[in-house]
Amino acid sequence: MLDNQVPMTQRAVFDTADTFEVSGRIYHDAEIFNREIQLIFGRTWVYVGHESELPAPGDLKTVVVAQQPIILIRDDDGEVIALLNRCRHRGAVICRTEHDHANTLRCPYHGWTYAKDGNLLGVPNPSGYPSTFDKSRWGLRRVARIGSYRGLLFVNLATDGHSLEEHLAPIRRYIDWWFDRAPDGNVKILSPPHRIHYPGNWKWQAENGHDGYHGDFVHESYHRTERELGPPPARPKPQAQKCTRGFTFGHGIFERRVRSPWLASWTGRLMRDFPEYERIMRSRFADAELDDITARRDTFVFPNLYLFETHIRVIEPLAVNRTTVKMQFYELQGSPQEVTASRMKSHERFFGPSGLGTPDDIEMFVRNETGIRASPDDTVLLARGMHRERRGPDGEVVGDGSDEVPLRALYREWDRLMSA
Amino acid sequence: MTASSSLGTSSGTTSAPPDTVPDLRVDEVTALLFREARLLDDVQWDKWLDLFTEDGLYWIPLEDTAAGPDRDLAIAYDDAEGRAARVFRRQRTRVYDQDPPSRTVHAVCNVEVVGTDDEGDVVVYSTQFVGEVRAGGDAQIGLNSPRLLMARVEHRLQLTDDGPRIRMKKVLLLDRAQPLYNMSFLI
Questions:
Q1: Predicted TM-score (pTM) above 0.90
Q2: How many Cβ atoms from other residues are within 10 Å of residue A352's Cβ?
Q3: Neighbour-count burial for A103-121, b at 16+ CB within 10 Å, e otherwise
Q4: Is the dihedral of CA B93, B96, B102, B108 positive or negative?
Q5: What is the per-residue pLDDT across A356-370, written as a single tens digit (0 to 9) for each?
Q6: In whole angstroms, what is the distance from residue A154 CA to residue A151 CA?
Q7: Which of A204, B73, B103, B163 is 20 to 30 A distant from A253 in Cα terms?
């Protein structure tokens, strides 16, 4: 039974001992979307890029957070700064391209020029302003907070609320294991990302990346193709221990863990196929550590970031029914070139707008988007595995591989922020 | 063969068209490109596979720099096995991204034989307009919206006893830097 203290039309998340449901309105109600922009994307740590995209002072990248245009630029001290991409004079956007390099930021409209740190350097014909004009007051506005964790860059438009360190704390050990697959402990973005657009709500993608239930159905065609045409499967068939994890602050993981020689995992297969990579990994880590590191995980960092085996996935909500997804392929730094080439070809085969997997996922999102319009106030059911939830080492909720534990974590945080 | 080429690249790794006239006339080249367009539009993908050489490449770059296909992510980078997998999946398995299927219309224009490359393959440039739509019921979001994809296409053709065959087809989409919707059909 649902708790009906509050009318159904005002509540979105129904979280009780017996069920977990969310109203279908959260996917197609423009007013709810506006609140998400304000209360979620405007108030939490939002992933904006990786430091390797801005290697040198003056390198800049333009991004959008909570529908606001923002410049990320590396200053002369080597720090990445986030500035609002809006001239303080008449509001024109300063930078138009996605990636650029600049020693100063100059507005083309009337020539106001700013330093990399946003300070106003000069205005043409300054005699038009009185001698009391205080340039220090008219620099580009800084985004309230910016933070980096091992090169992953996040911004937060709100001055209050928890720190980035606190935000990532619940899943930090899993993020660290993701980085540990790189011999140098770092990743590097190599090229422009796969960019995908779909006419649907952003949460379809947020829900899908760590959903361990859909793969055998949505990706049946991929699996069948690989069985028929791919390399012969390993014998005996390696088995993975699958589980899902749901954390505080909305984070979640779908995990496939295998024992040595880890052949059911991406990293294990890379070690088998590339002896030099295996040598490096074994020289750095003991077998027990490699059990943790080689486990394959799809890691969601609320609200817009996924860490995958081959790529960093960024979800960008454009409108209630328009979403862009970017898949940033990365190099495991310090690994042999052949490892990068092999991972890239594997990525291209499944992912991207023309991959053998991604378009099937996108097709489900637009099917969701269509179906949800029938009986618009009806709920979707996210209760799978509630009866078999258990607790993990850090107090997180753990479920079986196909359970909707990460989705419940996502919507508990969503509800907390939207109820503010 | 090397995957480097000159169309739209910043790499400039291919020399300018040589003085030697390729042993292939524009009308023969055009006939092949038209035939390829027709096979794609008729979804005769098995026959399309036969247009390629054994070591042929079907390539849709994201960014086409000197770094090469091992460092520059591609939208598609299919050798013979990759093309076969794509066609097998479409024709022999349950594919949701092609249910309902795409209809396409390829228009091939600006065909130009520009020379031969280091390996003696004939380099052909064309401009292609590809219309695509998936038809469905009225309520269906993501269907029923015709799209126009535009591309500069480079073919490298090998002259064989059976006529010219495709050693490489490289498709530089006009909007390769923009987010793309379902691209599970062949360009």
A1: yes
A2: 27
A3: eebbbeeeebebbbbbebe
A4: negative
A5: 999 999 999 999 999
A6: 9
A7: B73
pLDDT band at B17 (very low <50, low <70, confident <90, very high): low
Residues in Cβ contact with A249 at an 8 Å cutoff, skipping those fewer than 6 apart: A162, A167, A170, A302, A413
Q: What amino acid occupies position A55?
A: P
CA distance B81 to B84: 5
**Cβ-contact B140, A372 below 8 angstroms:** no
* Structure-token match 């070591």, residue found: B55
Buried/exposed code over A138-164 (b: 16+ C-beta within 10 A; e: otherwise): bbbeebebbbebebbbbbbbeeeeeeb
Q: Which residue has the tokens 């319009």?
A: A373
Tell me the two tokens of residue A400. 């079986």
Q: What is the Cα–Cα distance from B105 to B148, expressed in whole angstroms?
A: 9
Q: Are B98 and B112 in contact (CB under 8 A)?
A: no
Residues within 8 A of B (CB atoms), A 314-343 only = 321, 324-326, 329, 337, 340-341
Segments of A192-285 assigned E as strands: 194-198, 241-246, 252-257
pLDDT digits (tens, 9 = 90+) for B61-120: 998 787 888 889 999 999 999 999 999 999 999 999 999 999 999 999 999 999 999 999
Distance CA A253, CA A296 (A): 10
Contact B179 A363 (CB under 8 A): no
A324 contact residues in B (CB cutoff 8 A): 179
Q: Is-contact B76 B21, C-beta < 8 A?
A: no
The amino acid present at B156, given as its one-letter code, is: R
Mean pLDDT, to the nearest integer, of A234-261? 89
Determine whether the interchain pair A354/B181 forms a contact, defined as Cβ–Cβ distance below 8 Å: no
Rounded CA-CA distance B172/B151 in Å is 5
Per residue, what are the HEC states of A156-167? ECCCCCCCHHHH
- Phi and psi of A69, rounded to 5°? -75, 130
For the stretch A152-174, pLDDT in tens is: 999 999 999 999 999 999 999 99
A127 CB-contact burial (10 Å; exposed 0-12 / middle 13-18 / buried 19+): exposed
Residues of B in contact with A224 (CB under 8 A): 89, 92-93
First to last CA, chain B: 22
Q: Which tokens is B63 given?
A: 């960014």
B177 contacts A192? CB cut-off 8 A: yes
A197–B180: do the CB atoms touch at under 8 Å? Answer: yes
| Contact with chain A for residue B84, Cβ under 8 A | yes
Q: Where are the strands (E) in chain B, listed by range? A: 52-61, 74-78, 102-116, 122-134, 147-160, 163-173
Q: CA A305, CA A327: separation in Å to the nearest integer?
A: 10
Looking at the complex, report in whole angstroms how far the Cα of residue B92 sits from the nearest Cα belonging to chain A. Answer: 8
